Design the sequence.
């Protein structure tokens, strides 16, 4: 091929080697351009989605007997040119069928029949029945005297396959005609889907006629096939499983014969046309294939789950006995429209949608047209949910077709007309892409080509009649359109569900004023979307959006998005109430609503927090500046939420030190602590901090507050009579504070020169009591209770002691449990030199050089068993009590502490106040098996995380996990479990982890044999 010829062909899209030779052989091309009379042929072939693929198919077709007739027709038949070349360039499977059966080419010709309305169901059914030798004028197969085939067995499968592909070829060529020639009529995607459903019905009727001829069922047996899914909704794809349910009468002994008949129908249709899926039947694949009508009704009344009623929205008789099929629909329809009143309706519907998304492979989610975010299933799911909610009182919504139901929802005022129209347009666009992808090889697929597959994307764009727009080629336009439509669909919850609600409560005309819900309809929708108290939710919406203020206008813009996020949170009611309170508290904060409006990540995160936690909104009203920290950087990070605890501690103490009075200093310290608790809680709930980091951050803040308060009180003293050191105990000393932890401490003092011990202790006690009073006084900011009950003699002993007093007490009266308590002792505030002296004093007590005697070990075990029995609250569940339950915090901590008392005298690494560090050192020293240590560590982390989550969710400290309900769901979400999932999964995980930890405790701490 010369250079000029190649250039001319390249302009038409023919770049493959040998294209010119093939076209010349066909007589359509000479050396300079199209042959005489072939200009239109060449232009039509150039418009084929894949010109090279189309040309290769034409070359193969030219080797068949009818080619001269086809070639002649192509020169004069515009419709044939457009349909043939578009089909051959779009579908290798249909091209192969035409080449194998070249006499079928008139199916694509522009005959009078093709210019008439497309074949209806009756004509298609008659065609396929005739293909298997059945009388199309006889009663329907499946009824008494119904049509029976004369072609059976393998011959029937071949005949039916050929006839089905013929019909598919004719339909696809009409669908693609406007691709090959923009002047030809274009079929709407919903019309194509409806005709595909008709074709599936005809194929099932023909399969039933063959099965009846082969099995010869008795005349009294009636069988009806109920279409489900896309076939039932008359919105079938080119390649889909056809979902069905079988119902038969009269039952009894004839049920087995009906089952054989149904099984044969499924096998034959599967061999010839498409897979037939009966898994939507009662009990799924484990249930009986065929049931009587009474059997179906009984099942749906007694055992069916919500998703099964949702599936019945599309149920429609499609083959077999029409009277029995209609009776099935009439019997079950009333149950379908009562499904939204079921107690489990919300949870099941949300869980079903979430499972679909979670089961997608991560590398396919961005290319998945059907199940991905903003895909076809999102539209179908939303429409079906609204149908179930409002269809109870509105029969116009009783349609199995997604697009028809969407139009009815818009006409009835349940969704805005513009929103309904835009969503329908996006749905049609995505369905068009789905159809084109499946046509290529007649394979079931919903995956778009990868971004780097330029050829695949170009073919898809051309087959969908996408054209370049001057700035982008067809691939760029396709990707942009796909993303635009997916984004539009992904906002369907905001648009469809919530804007009409706001129109109903704000009483102001707006863009969705055509979508007007009655109060009853608004309440029904909110209940279906997860609100337990729809009346209360509507009241909150009225308060937020009422009036003509700028804030109300911004709220009307924000709330659809916010409500969508709240709906999937564990407690939407509490979240909406919290949002109202926060909004009212920050009404005079000028940047609050602007931040939510302009920073999408802030709004989304805030709804997660408010719908999960009672602690966050309590803290937020007086620390609104934390909201700014919810924003993400350009890299998607949140550096402000994960600040370095040391940096925070220094900043807190510096800020407090500027105050002139102890009262002002403590107010500043407590305010700063509120801010930090809120920041840490937000980072924790959003999954940005591990449990170790949470404990470290909370401990650091508490230490800084104690230290700065002590400093402020000391500065206010006219004279100093003693130095004071604060010793952290318990979880504070171990660096393991939780949100509800008290500050467990002991106080030690040393008199200054010239002051006696008694006077020094009295003065230090006044200082310490001042610190405790200021940190525990009534205030809008959270108190930090200072608990000194672990001091010698407990509540009965002096609040402050000198070093000598501590030395004398521990030498004369100290008990084993007190030595154990000292394992967590760590200086946290006050005089450092005095703290070092105190540490030197207690080290020999808590880290005895020779370890502890066997009697002491037995005493510790006895005390632990007594604590387990006596301190567990009445009615508490030992399996889920985070502190005293089996495998909980106390179990792990006492196990590590026993190792420290026995071996820290020899193993210096065990001289630590932190539980996990002590566990790691015991493992390094060979005292605990690594596998056992891993179980203990996991138990401690799990129990600590759960304990923190309880405080976050309930807003008050607690050690007992909720047994069920929204609080349990919120705890699970706070711990990273999927919203809308089964919280029982979390409980099972918790019990499993702590049970394993308890097994280690029984061996290592109690010494029980394995």
Sequence:
């Amino acid at each position: 091929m010369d250079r000029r010829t190649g250039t001319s062909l390249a302009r038409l899209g023919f770049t493959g080697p040998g294209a010119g030779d093939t076209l010349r052989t066909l007589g359509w091309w000479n050396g300079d351009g199209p042959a005489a009379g072939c200009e239109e042929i060449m232009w039509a072939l150039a418009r084929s989605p894949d010109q090279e693929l189309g040309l290769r198919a034409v070359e193969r077709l030219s080797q068949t007997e009818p080619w001269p007739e086809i070639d002649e027709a192509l020169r004069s038949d515009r419709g044939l040119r457009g349909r043939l070349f578009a089909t051959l360039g779009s579908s290798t499977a249909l091209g192969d069928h035409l080449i194998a059966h070249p006499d079928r080419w008139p199916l694509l010709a522009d005959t009078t029949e093709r210019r008439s309305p497309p074949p209806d169901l009756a004509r298609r059914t008659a065609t396929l029945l005739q293909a298997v030798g059945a009388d199309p004028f006889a009663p329907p197969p499946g009824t008494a005297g119904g049509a029976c085939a004369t072609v059976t067995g393998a011959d029937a499968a071949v005949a039916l396959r050929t006839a089905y592909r013929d019909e598919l070829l004719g339909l696809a060529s009409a669908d693609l005609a406007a691709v090959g020639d923009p002047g030809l009529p274009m079929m709407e995607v919903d019309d194509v889907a409806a005709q595909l459903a008709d074709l599936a019905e005809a194929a099932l009727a023909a399969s039933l006629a063959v099965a009846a001829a082969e099995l010869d069922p008795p005349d009294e047996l009636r069988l009806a096939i109920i279409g489900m899914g896309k076939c039932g909704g008359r919105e079938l794809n080119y390649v889909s499983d056809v979902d069905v349910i079988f119902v038969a009468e009269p039952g009894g002994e004839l049920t087995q014969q009906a089952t054989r008949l149904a099984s044969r129908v499924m096998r034959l249709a599967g061999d010839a046309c498409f897979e037939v899926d009966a898994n939507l039947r009662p009990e799924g694949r484990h249930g009986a294939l065929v049931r009587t009508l009474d059997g179906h009704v009984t099942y749906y009344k007694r055992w069916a789950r919500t998703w099964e009623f949702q599936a019945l929205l599309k149920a429609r008789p499609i083959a077999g006995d029409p009277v029995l099929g209609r009776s099935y629909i009439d019997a079950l329809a009333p149950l379908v429209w009562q499904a939204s009143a079921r107690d489990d309706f919300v949870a099941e519907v949300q869980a079903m949608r979430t499972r679909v998304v979670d089961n997608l492979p991560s590398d396919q989610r961005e290319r998945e047209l059907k199940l991905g975010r903003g895909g076809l299933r999102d539209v179908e799911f939303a429409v079906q949910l609204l149908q179930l909610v409002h269809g109870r009182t509105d029969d116009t919504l009783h349609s199995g077709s997604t697009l028809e139901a969407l139009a009815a929802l818009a006409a009835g005022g349940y969704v805005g007309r513009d929103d309904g129209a835009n969503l329908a347009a996006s749905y049609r666009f995505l369905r068009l892409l789905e159809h084109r992808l499946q046509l290529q090889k007649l394979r079931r697929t919903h995956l778009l080509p990868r971004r780097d597959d330029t050829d695949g994307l170009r073919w898809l764009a051309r087959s969908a009649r996408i054209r370049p727009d001057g700035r982008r080629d067809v691939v760029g336009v396709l990707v942009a359109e796909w993303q635009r439509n997916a984004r539009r669909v992904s906002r369907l919850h905001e648009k469809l569900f919530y804007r009409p609600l706001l129109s109903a409560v704000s009483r102001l005309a707006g863009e969705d004023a055509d979508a007007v819900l009655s109060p009853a309809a608004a309440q029904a929708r909110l209940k279906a979307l997860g609100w337990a108290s729809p009346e209360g939710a509507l009241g909150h919406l009225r308060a937020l959006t009422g009036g003509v203020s700028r804030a109300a206008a911004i709220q009307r813009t924000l709330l659809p998005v916010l409500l969508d996020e709240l709906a999937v949170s564990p407690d939407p009611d509490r979240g909406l109430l919290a949002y109202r309170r926060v909004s009212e508290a920050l009404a005079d904060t000028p940047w609050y609503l602007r931040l939510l409006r302009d920073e999408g990540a802030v709004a989304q995160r805030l709804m997660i927090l408010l719908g999960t936690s009672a602690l966050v909104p309590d803290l937020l009203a007086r620390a609104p500046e934390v909201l700014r920290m919810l924003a993400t950087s350009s890299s998607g990070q949140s550096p402000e939420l994960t600040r370095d605890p040391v940096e925070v501690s220094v900043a807190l103490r510096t800020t407090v030190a500027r105050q002139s009075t102890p009262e002002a200093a403590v107010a500043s310290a407590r305010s700063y602590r509120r801010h930090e608790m809120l920041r840490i809680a937000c980072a924790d709930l959003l999954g940005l901090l591990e449990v170790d980091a949470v404990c470290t951050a909370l401990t650091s803040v508490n230490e800084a507050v104690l230290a700065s308060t002590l400093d402020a009180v000391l500065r206010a003293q006219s004279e100093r009579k003693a130095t004071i050191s604060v010793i952290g105990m318990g979880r504070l000393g171990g660096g393991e504070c939780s949100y509800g932890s008290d500050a467990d401490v002991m106080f030690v003092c040393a008199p200054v020169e010239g002051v006696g011990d008694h006077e020094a202790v009295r003065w230090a006690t006044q200082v310490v009591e001042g610190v405790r009073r200021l940190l525990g006084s009534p205030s809008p900011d959270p108190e930090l209770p200072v608990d000194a009950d672990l001091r010698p003699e407990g509540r009965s002993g002096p609040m402050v002691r000198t070093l000598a007093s501590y030395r004398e007490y521990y030498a004369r009266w100290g008990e084993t449990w007190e030595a154990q308590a000292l394992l967590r002792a760590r200086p946290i505030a006050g005089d450092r030199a005095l703290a070092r002296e105190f540490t030197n004093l207690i080290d020999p007590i808590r880290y005895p050089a020779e370890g502890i005697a066997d009697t002491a070990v037995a005493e510790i075990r006895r005390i632990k068993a007594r604590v387990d029995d006596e301190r567990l609250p009445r009615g508490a569940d030992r399996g889920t009590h985070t502190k005293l339950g089996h495998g909980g915090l106390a179990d792990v901590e006492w196990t590590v502490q026993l190792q420290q008392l026995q071996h820290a005298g020899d193993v210096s690494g065990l001289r630590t106040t932190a539980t996990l560090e002590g566990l790691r050192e015991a493992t390094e020293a060979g005292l605990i098996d690594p596998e056992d240590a891993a179980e203990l560590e996991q138990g401690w982390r799990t129990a600590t995380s759960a304990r923190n989550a309880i405080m976050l969710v309930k807003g008050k400290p607690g050690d007992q996990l909720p047994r069920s309900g929204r609080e349990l769901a919120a705890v699970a979400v706070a711990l990273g479990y999927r919203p809308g999932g089964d919280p029982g999964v979390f409980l099972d995980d918790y019990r499993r982890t702590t049970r394993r930890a308890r097994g280690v405790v029984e061996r290592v701490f109690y010494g029980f044999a394995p």
Remarks:
- Residues 508-512 have pLDDT under 50 and may be disordered.
